[in-house]
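dumping this here before i forget
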Amino acid sequence: MTLERLTQITSVGISSGITLHNATLTGVTTLTTLSAGGDINAVNGTFSGNVSVAGTITYEDVSNVDSVGVVTARSGLHVTGGGLDVVGISTLSGGSVSGESAGTVRNILTISETGSQSSTGQRILFKNSEQNWEQGAVTAIRETTSNNFSLALSSSSGGTNLERLRITSAGLVGIGTDNPQNKLQVFLNAPLSVPSAGTSGHHATIGDVGFGVAVGALNSGKSYIQGTRWDGTSTNYDLLLQPNGGSVGIGTDNPTSLLHLSSTTAPQLNVHAPTSGGSDSQLRISSGAGNYRRIIFYDSAATPTKNNFEIAVQEVDNSLFFGPSTAVGGLTFSGSTGLRIDASGRMTIPSQPAWSVFSGNNSYNNTEAEVWDGVVWIGGENHGTIHVNTGNHYTSSNGRFTAPVAGKYWVYFSVTTGDNNNHFVNVHKNGLGIADSIQLSYSQGLLSANWMAVVDLAANDYLQAVRRGTGYRFYNLQWGGYLIG
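structure:
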């Protein structure tokens, strides 16, 4: 049967089935109704217009259906037997699709629906009808905004589909969750502890077959990164950070060194030794050629302006230094300041505040003004010798030693009379005597006396060597001291 160039067919009704062998319906403008009491069989039939079926179209034992256009099946389209092949025509030109990569794109298969309710959508379902097994699905789900849709992929477990992956309209991808909050969110009931080497159960793994890097989170909120195996072989591997260069920041988004630790609420580095066994070092610092291996403690400014303290080992003699630094990146004490422990265990403190002043012999030949400022001895100003003045805390013009820091200072003086008159000598702290005066008899000259004591000084306290009264003459006088702790 052939129907050609019919402008309108309002209704074709046949009480029994319709069988079309090699039938062609061409140029039919409107076919309002085509109905049959039985089956409609189209063998080698071609429909050049749209075919709309209120019921179900069933293709059986058809190895290939090549359809160009749109098939609307309101009650479903069921294909059994050889299956359904939807083939595009490569010679037709396409165009760019909004939101996707530009290029030649055309819709090969379109599934459409109507309605505007949220949480509705369309699904491509894979199913074994004979066993009633669901085998998987691809679902488009409308979100709360009517024109926003998520895409869900499901796989089957025990014949029942379970959603495994969702891509939201915002491009967020969730694995194991239907509500991802990040570009990629992987949900897994978090374990109590990190899975042991050789076992699975991590949130994500990257690597070769059975081994690589595992990433996960624990139910305590802690997270981990571990180089390991998950194929039954109990082996862990080294984890490399920035192997080709660059810095690592912990607690900071602006690292200024290879490893930059920053924290205001916890220790920045805690090296924990095993409770038993093990004799290796917990922290090891090594270097190539150079003068020092060092640890630098500097101020907390965003751009350090001062290195407050350094610990260093000098490679020349394996001496260990502890001391202050005043230059950024520079070890300024270099054995002349701070604490030094040499390879033999000898300890020296070259920078410890100290002073020692000697008048020289026959100081009684000098004028009073050259040796004394009233009762305060200033012999080191004009004719004496300042043997030691570490830190320049002794001022010869007024005979004062001023304490740079609070601490305990060992102080001494030694005096020899120059004539046979009574002589009284003392050490004053902030203008007041700190010990009983030493009296030297007037019965003869050139008598000597010594005094020493440990004195508590606050920062900026000062000491002076003082005589009682004026006119007393001394053959020589020496005094000094140093900080002991």
